Amino acid sequence: MGTISEDGLATTIDSLPFELLAEVMLFAATDRIRKTVLSLSWVCSNWRQIAIQTPQLWVTRLPLSKSSFFDNLVKHSATALFLERSAPLLFPVRIHDIGSQSRADILPLLAAVRDAAPRWQSLSLHSNHPDSEHEILAQIPAGQLDCLETLDLQLSGSDVWGSRVFTSALRLRDVTFATDLFSPSHIVAMPWSQLTRLELVCPSPQECLDALAQCKNVSTVDILTKQWDSDVVVGAGATLEYLEVLDIQMRVGSIGEDLGPFLRQLQAPALTCLRLSLDFHYIEDHEWLTSYLTPDLALFLSHSPRLEHLNLYNCILAADMAEDIITHTPHLIQLFFSNNDPNNHIQDDFFRALGDTNTDGTHRLVPSLQTLDLGELFFDFTEAALWDMLKSRGWVLSEDDQTSMPQAQLKCVGLGWNETFHHRNDTNGLFTFKFRHALWMYQQRGFEFFGIVDLKDRKRSGGYEN
Predict the structure, then answer these.
(1) To bridge 199 with a disulfide, which of 3, 101, 176, 252 should be the other Cys (CB 3.0-4.6 Å)?
(2) DSSP H helical segments within 93-252, as ranges?
(3) Buried b (16+ CB within 10 A) or exposed e, 269-295
């Protein structure tokens, strides 16, 4: 196949320089499917030589999974060929969908990859069979994972908890470890102090807390665990100087502590995003299963002065805790509350605190607040308190209904739905027509208001009149 050049001479793709033709091959094989790569090397002897001398072409994710065994190309010889021609580059290893039926197929293939363990860049192991997990981890050579940077283990059993094969992986920075929440399982040992990202799914909150306390360099943490069903082991406490994002979700089903131990034993001075969530797992009467987070959360927030995003879902707080939160979070940009506990009311004092200003006109609390989402909290506030807060934040209507907002940083307010309004047919009656009209005018100029009130219905009728 050729083209006609400007001088009228025919040119072929083989006339391209070596480097350019190699780039063409890499572009054609962006999916790195083995069949595509091999096909390129079979075109002619020239293409074969270029392909063999381009190791990037042979770096593929090694799909050691049950579904791959029906592909004739995934054989020991093909695996060895790709490993040989991709040297000295690093490559990812993926071992998924492992069951008892496929162990006989997986282990020989893993043995072929094992010799290249110093070149593993990432390892993803997903299994739902405990025996397979134990055998596969036993095949991984300890002390040879010199270049492993990312690890993703999603396991089912508890037979692997004693493995220490990853503790000597000096470049390991990103770890995901997930196991069954409803069976006795343990966390595999890791080089905790060098990790920068950690995701844990484990039924033992104590193991999650102990592991996290050792992650001195971590910046992002995501934990899903269960409520304590025994006494909390009190540690010395830990300061995670580089932690910026912390997300803890907890399944509640006992009478033990929930989020409190994490908040008491950890400090995160660089934290910018905190998400705390309790899942009651279809428990209707959960009040006796949880304790108030008020003192523990206030203490934790006092050591996290850079916090910008705070999400609290189903966390039980004292009645005046909302004010305490905004007192301890001067740089807050986004605040989300959601809780069906009738003791968690939003009252006028909360909005007054948000609207309070200093002598120079700046807001005393959370001056940079942009989003306020009150989720499913119970409301016990007046329209006047909410409206005054919005006015103090720059949303003011002049006589000709032109909105003035010289420095209005508050962009979004949400009022959720809960049992307070469950039996009301007319939630618009919560606010007067005048206020709903003002909210509608704000929306025309960029303000977002969502929740229990339909601002499209602004007719002057009945109780809507101010």
Answers:
(1) 176
(2) 103-114, 130-139, 205-213
(3) eebbbbbbbbbbeeeeebeebbebbbe
